[in-house]
């Protein structure tokens, strides 16, 4: 059974006349009659009662007509959706997400994209670094956000530099290090490290930095989200690590964000070199516009006298 069988039957069922149906379909009447007979033979049921005077639907024909209309309507919707996707007006944009996605550049670009293309579904997938790389290399996702060294020299990936982020350590206002201007990771050996369930990859990242400083970290049970993580730090349950742009987006008078001696994060957007998606092209255009507009001054110790800090930003660069 093919779509043409359904379209032919629908025309005959609506006009109840083979000659007029053939004219509507721009086919010969013998060919139309043959297609309807083939359809009935495949179904094992007579759909139409034919006579020299008139054509009528049988009970089976009425049932099949109802389903035929629904099927053809869905086909039309699917066809229109494909055309919208090709034009960049519909479909699904898949973006890999981890704890570094909270850059104002990225958030602003996603918000503008959704407002500009409301028919496009933006699907954010929380994935660890290795899962992001796999999704990008197998083209199961359009875009990911990675540290430059994670992109590496993979020929199949292209990248665009987003920003250089300073890593801060969040401690409660009553913490013994709260009055410090900065902190070294080695000084945090005895601290409990806080994690959030919605920050994939953060545990591995902290573990790597701590081992580089000569110790293995002790982790608390993960909390639900980053907001809960900062609240735990404010109450003295432990310390946490986050990029300066993430800290600036979550000011809290009960928390101090201390610059650390960790190497800065060079964050990039990455995608497959062979990706031809119009959706990705449009999103990257919006993202580049936000980058060109420049970054706001970051104040990650908002509300704390004498604690304002602005982190430098690099201009966007595109590379492979």
List keywords for this structure.
single chain, 4-stranded antiparallel sheet, alpha+beta, Arc Repressor Mutant, subunit A, 13 strands, 320 residues, disordered C terminus, 3-stranded antiparallel sheet, D-Maltodextrin-Binding Protein, domain 2, 3 domains
Quick synopsis:
With 320 residues, the protein is of the alpha+beta class. It folds into three domains: 84 residues, Winged helix-like DNA-binding domain superfamily/Winged helix DNA-binding domain (Arc Repressor Mutant, subunit A, Orthogonal Bundle); 130 residues, Periplasmic binding protein-like II (D-Maltodextrin-Binding Protein, domain 2, 3-Layer(aba) Sandwich), CATH 3.40.190; 93 residues, D-Maltodextrin-Binding Protein, domain 2 (3-Layer(aba) Sandwich).
How would you describe what is shown here?
Helix content is 41%, strand content 19%. The protein has 320 residues and is an alpha+beta fold. The chain folds into three domains: 84 residues, Orthogonal Bundle (Arc Repressor Mutant, subunit A); 130 residues, Periplasmic binding protein-like II (D-Maltodextrin-Binding Protein, domain 2, 3-Layer(aba) Sandwich), CATH 3.40.190.10; 93 residues, Periplasmic binding protein-like II (D-Maltodextrin-Binding Protein, domain 2). The strands form five sheets. The protein has a four-stranded antiparallel beta sheet with strand order 5-12-6-13. The two termini are 48 Å apart. The C terminus is likely disordered.
């Amino acid at each position: 059974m093919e779509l043409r069988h359904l379209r032919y039957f629908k025309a005959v069922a609506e006009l109840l006349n083979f000659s007029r149906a053939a004219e509507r379909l721009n086919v010969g009447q013998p060919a139309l009659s043959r297609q309807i007979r083939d359809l009935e033979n495949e179904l094992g049921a007579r759909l139409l009662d034919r006579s020299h005077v008139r054509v009528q639907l049988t009970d089976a024909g009425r049932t099949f007509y109802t389903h035929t209309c629904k099927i053809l309507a869905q086909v039309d919707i699917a066809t229109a959706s494909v055309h919208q996707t090709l034009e960049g007006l519909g479909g699904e944009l898949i973006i890999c997400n981890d704890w570094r996605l909270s850059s104002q550049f990225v958030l602003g670009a996603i918000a503008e994209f959704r407002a500009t293309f409301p028919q496009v579904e933006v699907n954010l997938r929380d994935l660890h670094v290795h899962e992001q790389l796999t999704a990008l290399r197998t083209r199961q996702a359009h875009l990911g956000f990675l540290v430059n060294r994670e992109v590496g020299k993979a020929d199949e990936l292209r990248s665009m530099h987003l920003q250089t982020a300073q890593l801060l350590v969040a401690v409660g206002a009553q913490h013994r290090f709260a009055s410090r201007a900065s902190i070294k990771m080695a000084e945090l050996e005895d601290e409990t490290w806080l994690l959030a369930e919605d920050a994939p990859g953060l545990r591995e990242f902290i573990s790597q930095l701590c081992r580089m400083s000569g110790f293995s970290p002790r982790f608390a049970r993960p909390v639900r989200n980053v907001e809960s993580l900062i609240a735990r730090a404010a109450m003295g349950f432990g310390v946490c690590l986050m990029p300066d742009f993430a800290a600036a987006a979550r000011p809290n008078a009960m928390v101090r964000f201390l610059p650390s001696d960790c190497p800065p994060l060079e964050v990039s957007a990455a995608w497959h070199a062979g990706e031809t998606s119009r959706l990705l092209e449009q999103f990257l255009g919006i993202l580049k516009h936000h980058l060109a507009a420049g970054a706001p001054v970051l104040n990650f110790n908002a509300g704390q006298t004498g604690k304002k800090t602005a982190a430098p930003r690099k201009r966007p660069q595109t590379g492979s």
